[in-house]
Amino acid sequence: MSDLKPLTNRKNIPEESSGAYKPLSLIPEVGRFALSGGIGNTIFFKLNQYLFQDVGISGSISWTLAYLLSIPLQQILHRHIVYLGVKNGTSSYFVELFRLYVSYSMSIVVGLLLSYVMEQLGVDHDVAWGVNVIATGIVSYVMVNRAMGKQTTD
């Protein structure tokens, strides 16, 4: 296990990726973040719809719960799509997951407030969800890169 490097040390990402990561290495990091986020947001959307439509939870609460529940999946997607599968030990995975929750906490607050305001204004639930995803996506990109040890210059 000594050859496992922490994801937070961004210098460990190979310059020349090989294997399954080779095609992804041709995409700029911001593009890989968008791809990872797109996959994660599709699952987030489905979970949000389930909580809102089938369970009957209010729009702002269903958005927040779905967001919180989708973060561990997003960590896996970021690891393999954005950061090209850099490996860690078990303890550093949980440290990274914690950092991801902390970095997304600002997005959760922004999203909850934005969702609540749009719900009060009578904005369609799906439209409100889309506006929220765009707003929180921008905040998340900056916060995740800072949490993972990189300033957003890409």
Automatic annotation (TrEMBL):
What does the entry list under GO cellular component? membrane
Q: Where is the signal peptide?
A: none
Q: Which GO terms describe its biological process?
A: polysaccharide biosynthetic process
Keyword annotations: Membrane, Transmembrane, Transmembrane helix
Would the keyword Nucleotide-binding be found if you checked this record's keyword annotation? no
Indicate the segments forming the GtrA/DPMS transmembrane domain, all copies.
32-145
Keyword Membrane annotated: yes
Chain segments annotated as transmembrane? 97-115, 127-144
In this record, what's one Pfam family? Answer: GtrA_DPMS_TM
InterPro entries assigned to the protein according to its UniProt record, in alphabetical order: GtrA_DPMS_TM
Q: How does it sit in the membrane?
A: Multi-pass membrane protein
Q: What is this protein called?
A: GtrA/DPMS transmembrane domain-containing protein
Per the UniProt record, the lineage of the source organism begins with: Eukaryota, Ichthyosporea, Ichthyophonida, Sphaeroforma
